[in-house]
């Protein structure tokens, strides 16, 4: 029933991860829900775990001193015969998620290409990769996949695949994970025009002065889009409280209301950003904060597929309103960086250090200006409307 377009894959984990309880948890989903087989095996003297979708394909789980955080692509496609099978499996995944909320599901409207419609959802559990559960349908003409026909009836010659997708396998980078084997195209992941690789992933930056509500809106966006909320301030405060090396370096800067040095923040955020970008996306809150940071981060992100920002959300709030909010927050939460002196200093720092960064992102068409003085839910609605419009336009 399920056809997964690859031969084999190895996923490596940190030493000590593949305990028997972990293997049992993996098998509960991939065998119990997806219907795969699993077995323990030894490879080069190491105990490994093998997942087998069918006799000819397998995923090897192994431990390594240098484990991968993700394979070199974002997801792997599982091709089912019919829409009913996809929908039935989605329901099984939902039931499993009720028992184990670590299971992640992303649902999407049908993606309609020039001659192919893809009906799909994404699922991820314990492994560093998403699985794209999908079925294709299209017009029955010139050997194309017909409605109600099986995937085995699909002509997989390179030229036919190009006709289906409205793109060239040679000239376009959009065929993610395809392999030309002999005279067939083995489609392992997705096709750009029918199922864009970046479509499930959201990468946002919130820019606003202290007290504008970045944290609140970032948390709401994180929940709405099912993406990671990466707050440099919260991470730094947590490290400072824990007394880590990074935390000790940051503590004095936080108390004065100054910006923490670039190298400290970059060290703190690099791994979380890369991991989040490979697992659905992120909303950044508090970094980058200077023009220099923005320029450096932009150049680095352009070299790593799937990391570059899609939109920069700028919350506009007057200085008077900001001060009122920060004073109230300081009294409520007892935060040491919300004193009158620290508040004035932090707002000055934002004006001098951070506002010039907005010009950099504006030149690249990324900035979305949002009125941050409205009620929280109205601000959120405006953000989502603006972000969805931009992402849709760029597809």
Describe this protein's structure.
The strands form 4 sheets. Strands 1, 6, 7, 8, 9 and 10 form a 6-stranded mixed beta sheet that branches. A 5-stranded parallel beta sheet has the order 14-15-13-16-17, with helices on both faces. Strands 2-5-4-3 form a 4-stranded mixed beta sheet, covered by helices on one side. The chain is 40% helix and 26% strand. It contains 11 helices and 17 strands. The longest helix is centred in the last third of the chain and has 24 residues. A hairpin with a 2-residue loop joins strand 3 and strand 4. The protein starts with a strand and ends with a helix. The chain is globular. It is an alpha/beta fold.
Cα-atom Rg, whole angstroms?
Answer: 24 Å
Class by SSE composition: alpha/beta
Task: Supply the number of structural domains.
Answer: 2
End-to-end gap: 31 Å
Largest sheet: 6 strands, mixed
Shape: globular
Judging by the overall fold, what is the CATH architecture of the largest domain?
A: 3-Layer(aba) Sandwich
Query: Helix and strand string, N-terminal first?
Result: EEHEEEEHEEEEHEEEHEHHHEHEHHEH
Percent helix: 25-40%
Low-pLDDT ranges: 1-6, 139-200
CATH topology of the largest domain: Rossmann fold
**Relative strand content:** 25-35%
> What's the β-strand tally?
17
CATH homology superfamily name of the largest domain: P-loop containing nucleotide triphosphate hydrolases
User: Can you count the helices?
Assistant: 11
* CATH class (first level) name of the largest domain: Alpha Beta
Average pLDDT, all residues: 75
